């Protein structure tokens, strides 16, 4: 089967995949794989394969936003992928979840338009328990500020004339906001595959805590590197 959005033949895909928004991050993650190679690229979707812990896996970029990312997730699943871990970045809603720390998303609030068009209102976007547990187990092996809990998936990065819903989700205890996890979890649930996510916090998203957005610092890079190690080991152990 030819996966035309990814430009990949399904039989070249492994069962387990790391996904991330940024194609450059996919390139970086792929450098940790033995015998890594770029299988294909189309639009924002870069597909690398290689071995980690002697297991054949893929690293695929999905771009920014739930709808575009969903095309990638659906194609991976059509290609036989059974487990997906997203390694992303997110903005913090909680003071103690500082820039440079990590969040394992056990569930995500689906405010994105995409999720509302594939599952009924109220359908929960939850991570697979076994994947979250594997991610949590890996965090025990490192000394790094790591939190786990609910994230929020939003379509908007820069506010329009409608105010951001940040404050109510902050009060509700949501840890961080990003743009694709709810789509991943909803698709994984209805297609019956496993999914989880770990995100590096690249700043405060809440307007009361907001700083200048700059995800390109050494501190954020270190957090992403740590998230990558945790995710690769969780996927292959
Ligand atoms: O760093 P990635 O994985 O792209 O994730 C986050 O960063 C992008 C916004 O800058 C959105 O895709 C958001 O979900
Ligand atoms: O969606 C995102 C991703 C990173 N940081 C944010 O504030 N929002």
Written account of the structure:
- This protein is α/β, with parallel strands linked by helices.
- It has one domain (2-236): Nucleoside phosphorylase domain (Rossmann fold, 3-Layer(aba) Sandwich), CATH 3.40.50.
- It has helices at residues 23-30, 66-78, 113-116, 129-139, 166-171, 181-191, 218-236; strands at 2-3, 8-9, 16-20, 34-42, 45-52, 55-61, 83-92, 102-110, 125-126, 146-153, 176-178, 194-204.
- A five-stranded mixed β-barrel has the order 7-11-10-8-12.
- Strand 10, helix 5 (166-171) and strand 11 (176-178) form a beta-alpha-beta unit.
- The mean pLDDT is 96.
- 1-O-phosphono-alpha-D-ribofuranose binds at residues 20-22, 64, 88-89, 157, 178-180.
- Residues 89-91, 157, 177-179, 202-203, 205 line the site of uracil (URA).
- This is Uridine phosphorylase.
- GO terms for molecular function: uridine phosphorylase activity.
- Residues 17-230 form the Nucleoside phosphorylase domain.
- One of its GO terms (cellular component) is cytosol.
């Amino acid at each position: 089967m030819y996966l035309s959005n990814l430009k990949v033949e399904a039989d070249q895909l492994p069962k387990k995949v790391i996904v991330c928004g940024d194609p450059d991050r996919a390139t970086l993650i792929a450098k940790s794989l033995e015998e890594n190679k770029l299988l294909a690229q189309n639009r924002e979707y870069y597909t690398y394969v290689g071995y980690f812990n002697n297991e054949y896996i893929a690293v695929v970029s999905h771009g920014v936003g739930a709808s575009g990312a969903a095309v990638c997730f659906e194609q991976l699943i059509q290609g036989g992928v059974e487990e997906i871990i997203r390694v992303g970045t997110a903005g913090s809603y909680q003071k103690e979840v500082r820039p440079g720390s990590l969040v394992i998303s056990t569930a995500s609030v689906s405010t994105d338009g995409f999720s509302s068009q594939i599952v009924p209102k109220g359908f929960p976007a939850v991570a697979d328990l076994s994947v979250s547990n594997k991610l949590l187990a890996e965090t025990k092996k490192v000394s790094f500020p790591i939190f786990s809990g609910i994230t929020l998936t939003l379509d908007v990065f820069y506010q329009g004339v409608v105010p951001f819903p940040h404050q109510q989700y902050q009060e509700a205890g949501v840890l961080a906001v990003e743009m694709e996890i709810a789509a991943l979890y909803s698709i994984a649930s209805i297609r019956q595959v496993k999914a989880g996510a770990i995100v590096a916090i690249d700043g405060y998203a809440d307007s009361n805590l907001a700083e200048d957005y700059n995800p390109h610092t050494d501190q954020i890079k270190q957090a992403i590197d740590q998230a990558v190690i945790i995710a690769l080991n969780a996927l292959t152990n």
